[in-house]
C-alpha cells in the first residue's frame, strides 16, 4: 500500500512514502495520516492597514499599532489541529501566534494580534503573515494576511492636547519633519465626540468660515501652521482631533473641554511656554466661578527659571480677574537648550476635593549662545538596531551669512545619516541662512544590523562652515545609543512541530542568536495539555523551567526535554510549549508539539506538505507510532523519478525497538 505525501515546489512534484512493518510475525501496511480533501482556514480579514500611534517603553520612544485577526477551521477535523502564524517582517510581531482547534470548537474563531513597531523612516511598508496548520488532516493547509504599514512620521505636532474653557480658544501647531517633493495637504478631522460638542476648529483664521486643511510645500514644509480650537457653552468632556496625511497616517490631538459650571477647575494659559535665554513670558491663571472661601495656589519651579511671585490667591471678590505669573529664563554659558516647568499646587491643609490639586506649565528654553543646537533637551538619541530615528538641528543665533552644517558619523560605524530622505542617497549637510537659522531642520539616523547582541554608543559630530566668521569651525555632537535587536534565542528542532509518541519524549535546543554582554534568562512554560511536560533538567525532581545565558555560554545549546504521557484514546494530539523571554517586555515563542497515539501501528509525519522555493530546501520528520518487534525500514521515493529537480538526502530510514519513537529527519531540496 502506498500513501501520497505532498511537496509544493516549482514543478509541484509529489513524493511517495513506501512503508511496511513486520510486527508479531505479520506484515502490515503502515497508515500515513494524510490531508483531507477539503480543509481550509477561514480568516476575518486577509488584509489590514496598521496606522502608527505613539507610546513609551523603558528605553525607546516607540511607535506601534496592532490589529486583531480571527481564524477558524473550514471543516471539522478528525482530531486536534495546531495553527501557527509567522511574519516575514522583522518589525511585525504576531501575538498569540498558535491556536489549537478540537473537533468540539473547530468553527469557533480564535484571535491573533498583529503588532507593528515602526521606525521614523517616513516610508510605508508591507508584510505577509503566514498561517500554517498541522494535525488531524490539516497538515500543510495555509492562508496568508497582507499587512500594510501607514506611517505618520512625516507629521510634527507641537503638542498633542489642548485645554479649553467655555467661551475661549486655544491652538496647536503642525509642520512636516522632512521636505516633500511636491505640495502636500494635511487634513484635520474631528472625532465622533467632538461633533457632539459646541466646539469648532479652524486651520485658516484669515479665510471665511472654518477650514480643515493645511497645505505644505517644498518651500514652507518646516514652518509651523496653526489650528485654532474654540469652545462655546458646554459641559466638561474630552474629545479628539485627527491630523491626517494623504497616505492615511495620522496623529491625535486630545481636546479637554471645561464648562463654566464645573466647580473649581483652574485654567492656565499657555500650558506650553517657549522662551529664549534671558527673556520672560507670562502665564495667566483663571478660576471659572467664585470659591466658597479664599484659595491660595503655591508656585513651584523646576529648572533654571525665576518667578515674580510665589503664590496666587483667589477670593470671592477677585475670582473673575485673571492673575498672571512672569516666568524668566536664566542665561547660561553652554550652547544647549533647556527645559523646566512651573507647578501650581494647593498648599498642605488647603486641598479641597472639589478643586483640581494643581496645574502644570511646561517651559522650553532656547539657547542664545553662538553655536549649533542639537536635540539638547534629550541629551542623547535612542534607536533600536536596524531602525532609524530623527533629531532636530538649528543655530542658536542669527548668522551674518549662509552657514553649512556637516553631519558626520564615525566612518567605521554601522550608522548613517540623511538630511533629505526625498533625495537619492544619504545627504549629510544642512544649510542655514539669515532667514531660517532658528527653524529646526531634521536629521535621520539609520542603524545597520550587526552580528552581535551588544548595545553600541556612537557619537555623531556636527561641524559648521561658511562665510560667517563667527560660525565657521563651530562644532557639536550627539550621542546615539543603539539598542541591539539580536538579544533573542534560536530554537533548534528536528522538526516543526516537534513529534513524539505517547510514553516517549523529544528534545529541542535553545541558544542565543549572537554574542551578548549581559545575562539573559528564558522561561519555559508548561503546555495547556497536562499529559505533556517540558523540563530543562530531567535529572532533578520536578520540571525545571529556567535557561540562563551569559557572555561565555551564549552559543552553547541548552536542551529542553518534552515528554508525553500515555492516555486511553486513539487520537493524535497537538499542543505547544511556551518560550518566554525579554528585557523590556515579555516576548513569546510557541514550540508546536504533535503527540502520536501508540495504540495503532503506523507512521507519524511532522507535516504532510512542504513549501520549498526554487533552490531551497526544507525538512520533515518520520517516526513510528508503536514499538516494533524488530527492525523496520521505511523506503522513500519520488512519485515521478525522472524529475531531478526534487531530491532527498535519504532513500530509507531504519527504526529499531530502541529508537522507534525518536523522529528521523529527511531534507527535501528543490533545484533552480
Architecture overview:
With 672 residues, the chain is mainly β. The protein has four domains: 2-31 and 600-670, no CATH class; 32-151, Immunoglobulin-like (Sandwich), CATH 2.60.40; 155-366, Immunoglobulins (Immunoglobulin-like, Sandwich); 372-483, Immunoglobulins (Immunoglobulin-like, Sandwich). 0% of the residues lie in helices and 51% in strands. Strands 1, 2, 3, 51, 53 and 55 form a six-stranded mixed sheet that branches. It is elongated and about 100 Å long.
Give short descriptive properties of this protein:
about 675 residues; mainly beta; Immunoglobulin-like; six-stranded mixed sheet; five-stranded antiparallel sheet; 56 strands
> What is the 3D shape?
elongated
Tell me the name of the CATH homologous superfamily of the largest domain: Immunoglobulins
CATH topological fold name of the largest domain: Immunoglobulin-like
Largest sheet: 6 strands, mixed
Count of β-strands: 56
Termini separation (Å)? 32 Å
State the helical fraction. under 10%
The appropriate CATH architecture of the largest domain is Sandwich
Q: What structural class results from the helix and strand content?
A: mainly beta
Strand content: over 45%
Q: What is the count of distinct domains? A: 4
Number of helices: 0
Amino acid at each position: 500500500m502506498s500513501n501520497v505525501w505532498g511537496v509544493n515546489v516549482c514543478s509541484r512534484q509529489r513524493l511517495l512514502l513506501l512503508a511496511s512493518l513486520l510486527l508479531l510475525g505479520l506484515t502490515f501496511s503502515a497508515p500515513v495520516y494524510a490531508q483531507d480533501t477539503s480543509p481550509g482556514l477561514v480568516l476575518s480579514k486577509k488584509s489590514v492597514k496598521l496606522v502608527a500611534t505613539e507610546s513609551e517603553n523603558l528605553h525607546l520612544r516607540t511607535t506601534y499599532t496592532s490589529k486583531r485577526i480571527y481564524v477558524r477551521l473550514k471543516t471539522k477535523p478528525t482530531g486536534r489541529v495546531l495553527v501557527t502564524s509567522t511574519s516575514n517582517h522583522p518589525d511585525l510581531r504576531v501575538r498569540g501566534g498558535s491556536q489549537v482547534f478540537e473537533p468540539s470548537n473547530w468553527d469557533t474563531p480564535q484571535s491573533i494580534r498583529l503588532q507593528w513597531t515602526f521606525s521614523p523612516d517616513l516610508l510605508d511598508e508591507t508584510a505577509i503573515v503566514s498561517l500554517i496548520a498541522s494535525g488531524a488532516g490539516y497538515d500543510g493547509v495555509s492562508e496568508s494576511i497582507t499587512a500594510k504599514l501607514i506611517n505618520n512620521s512625516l507629521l510634527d505636532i507641537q503638542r498633542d492636547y489642548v485645554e479649553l474653557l467655555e467661551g475661549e480658544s486655544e491652538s496647536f501647531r503642525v509642520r512636516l519633519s522632512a521636505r516633500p517633493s511636491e505640495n502636500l495637504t494635511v487634513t484635520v478631522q474631528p472625532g465622533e465626540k467632538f461633533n457632539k460638542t459646541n466646539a469648532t476648529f479652524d486651520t485658516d483664521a484669515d479665510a471665511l468660515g472654518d477650514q480643515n486643511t493645511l497645505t505644505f510645500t517644498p518651500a514652507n514644509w518646516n514652518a509651523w501652521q496653526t489650528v485654532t480650537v474654540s469652545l462655546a457653552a458646554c459641559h466638561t468632556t474630552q474629545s479628539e482631533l485627527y491630523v491626517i496625511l494623504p497616505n492615511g497616517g495620522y496623529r491625535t490631538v486630545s481636546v479637554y473641554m471645561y464648562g463654566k459650571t464645573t466647580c473649581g477647575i483652574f485654567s492656565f494659559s499657555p500650558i506650553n511656554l517657549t522662551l529664549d535665554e534671558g527673556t520672560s513670558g507670562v502665564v495667566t491663571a483663571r478660576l471659572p466661578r467664585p470659591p466658597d472661601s479664599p484659595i491660595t495656589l503655591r508656585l513651584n519651579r523646576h529648572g533654571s527659571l525665576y518667578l515674580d511671585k510665589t503664590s496666587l490667591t483667589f477670593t470671592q471678590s477677585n475670582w473673575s480677574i485673571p492673575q498672571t505669573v512672569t516666568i524668566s529664563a536664566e542665561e547660561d554659558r553652554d550652547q544647549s537648550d533647556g527645559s523646566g516647568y512651573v507647578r501650581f499646587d494647593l498648599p498642605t491643609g488647603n486641598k479641597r476635593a472639589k478643586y483640581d490639586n494643581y496645574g502644570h506649565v511646561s517651559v522650553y528654553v532656547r539657547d542664545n549662545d553662538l553655536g549649533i543646537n542639537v536635540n539638547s533637551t534629550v541629551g542623547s538619541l535612542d534607536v533600536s538596531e536596524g531602525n532609524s530615528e530623527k533629531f532636530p538641528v538649528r543655530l542658536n543665533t542669527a548668522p551674518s551669512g549662509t552657514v553649512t552644517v556637516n553631519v558626520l558619523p564615525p566612518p567605521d560605524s554601522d550608522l548613517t545619516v540623511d538630511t533629505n530622505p526625498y533625495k537619492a542617497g544619504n545627504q549629510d549637510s544642512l544649510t542655514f541662512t539669515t532667514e531660517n537659522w532658528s527653524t529646526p531642520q531634521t536629521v535621520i539616523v539609520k542603524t545597520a544590523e550587526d552580528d552581535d547582541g551588544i548595545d553600541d554608543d556612537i557619537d555623531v559630530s556636527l561641524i559648521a562652515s561658511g562665510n560667517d566668521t563667527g560660525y565657521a569651525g563651530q562644532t557639536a555632537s550627539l550621542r546615539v545609543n543603539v539598542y541591539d535587536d539580536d538579544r533573542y534565542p534560536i530554537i533548534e528542532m528536528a522538526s516543526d512541530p516537534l513529534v513524539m509518541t505517547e510514553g516517549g519524549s523529544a528534545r529541542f535546543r535553545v541558544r542565543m542568536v549572537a554574542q551578548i554582554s549581559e545575562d539573559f534568562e528564558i522561561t519555559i512554560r508548561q503546555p495547556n495539555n497536562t499529559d505533556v511536560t517540558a523540563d530543562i533538567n530531567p535529572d532533578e525532581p520536578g520540571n525545571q523551567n529556567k535557561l540562563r545565558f551569559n557572555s561565555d555560554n551564549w552559543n552553547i545549546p541548552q536542551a529542553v526535554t518534552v515528554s508525553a504521557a500515555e492516555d486511553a484514546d486513539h487520537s493524535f494530539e497537538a499542543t505547544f510549549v511556551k518560550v518566554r523571554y525579554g528585557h523590556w517586555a515579555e516576548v513569546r515563542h510557541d514550540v508546536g508539539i504533535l503527540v502520536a497515539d501508540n495504540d495503532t501501528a503506523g507512521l507519524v509525519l511532522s507535516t504532510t506538505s512542504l513549501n520549498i522555493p526554487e533552490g531551497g530546501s526544507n525538512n520533515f520528520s518520520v517516526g513510528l507510532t508503536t514499538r516494533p518487534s524488530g527492525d523496520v525500514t521505511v523506503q522513500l521515493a519520488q512519485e515521478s523519478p525522472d524529475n531531478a529537480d526534487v531530491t532527498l538526502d535519504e532513500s530509507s530510514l531504519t527504526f529499531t525497538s530502541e529508537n522507534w519513537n525518536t523522529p528521523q529527519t529527511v531534507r527535501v531540496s528543490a533545484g533552480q
